[in-house]
Amino acid sequence: MVMLPEGWDCKNINEIGIQVIDGDRGKNYPKDNEFQATGSCLFLSAKNVTKAGFDFSLGQFITSEKHKILNKGAVELGDIVITTRGSIGHFAYYNQKKYQTIRINSGMAILRSNVNYINPDFLYEVCRSQIIKTQIEKASFGSAQPQLTIAIIKKFRIPLPPLSEQKKIAAILSTWDRAIEGTEKLLANSQQQKKALMQQLLTGKKRLPGFSGKWLWKRSKEIFKSISIKNNPMDCELLSVTQDQGVVLRSLLERRVVMPDGSVQGYKLVNPGNFIISLRSFQGGLEYSYYRGLVSPAYTVLDNKIEIENDFYKFYFKSYNFIGHLAVATIGIRDGKQISYQDFSFIKLPYPPLPEQQAIAAVLTTADEEITAIESDLVRLRQEKKALMQQLLTGKRRVTVD
Question: Which of 37, 54, 232, 303 is the most buried (most CB within 10 A)?
Answer without folding.
Answer: 54
